[in-house]
Amino acid sequence: MAGKEKPNMVHQNAIHVETIRKEQTHQKLHTEFGINPYRKFHVPADNPMSRMSRKPTEAIADNSAFIEAFHKAKLEPNKKYSMPQTTSQEIGWLSTPLIPSNLYDKRLNFHRRSTAITKQE
């Protein structure tokens, strides 16, 4: 009982070429896509503080009081208020240094330096 012979490289290449030719004849390139009308499509609401808005800004441009309030709301707390509003804001409210920084002041800056003791030989 003789089994099926294994095809050689020439036959395998011919089968491969024929398979690719058949696939290319039935291929169709789709360049236009659409939304399925039978599927529900929900558009999420815009973020109110987002910089990118999908809505036109002509209606907001006329209201200058709104724009000023919007810019004031975006400021840092120490620029909005004269005193901290919460106890958490008290930490770091005055962020300016008490003394001006000087990189050459050896009392405050501990740079690495090599001496005769620390030098590797």
From TrEMBL:
Name of the molecule in the record: Protein FAM183A
Key word Cytoplasm present: yes
GO cellular component labels: ciliary base; cytoskeleton
Keywords, ordered alphabetically: Cell projection, Cytoplasm, Cytoskeleton
Pfam hit, one: FAM183
Organism encoding this protein: Zoarces viviparus (Viviparous eelpout)
Signal peptide: none
Major localisation: other
Compartments it resides in: Cell projection, Cilium; Cytoplasm, Cytoskeleton
InterPro entries, alphabetized: CFAP144
